Amino acid sequence: QMDAKHLTFADNTFDTVIDTFGLCSVDDPVRVLNEMQRVCKKEGGKVLLLEHGRGHYKWLNKYIDNKAPQHAHKWGCWWNRDIDAIVKEAGLDVVKKERRMFGTTYYYVAQPSGREGLKMNT
């Protein structure tokens, strides 16, 4: 068992790194994505994400925003996160993105960023 913000794998270890419905339950999802990029091979590597978060509709976002604290307390999941903003801030190079279920379900195929300095100081 290890912390997703401090993976004990060497840089450029994996061909593909996958996260499914996990960014909602960590305190620093951008750092988690940066760690995923670090351990993914820079040449030909893929980062696959299946996540949930804010939807396409204001009425739906209003509802999930209103219920988010109770939902997080009960389930440990912040279901109203802006996944697009998190992915953008992490600097992933997005190859493909799809949204389903009123826009609340996100599927990304991405590559590690070409940016230098992704390795986190520990």
E-strand count: 4
Biggest sheet details: 4 strands, mixed
Structural class comes to: alpha+beta
Shape estimate: globular
The fraction of residues assigned to DSSP E strands is 15-25%
Order of helices and strands: EHEHHEE
Radius of gyration: 15 Å
Strand order of the largest sheet: 1-2-4-3
Give the CA-CA distance, first to last residue: 18 Å
Regions with little confidence, pLDDT below 50 for 5+ residues: 116-122
Mean pLDDT: 88
Helix fraction, binned, reads 25-40%
Name the assembly state: single chain
Query: Given the structure, what is the number of helices?
Result: 3
Report on this model:
There is one protein chain. With 122 residues, this protein is α+β, with helices and mostly antiparallel strands. Helix content is 30%, strand content 22%. The chain has a 4-stranded mixed sheet with strand order 1-2-4-3, with helices on one face. Helix 1 (29-39) crosses helix 3. The longest helix has 18 residues, at 58-75.
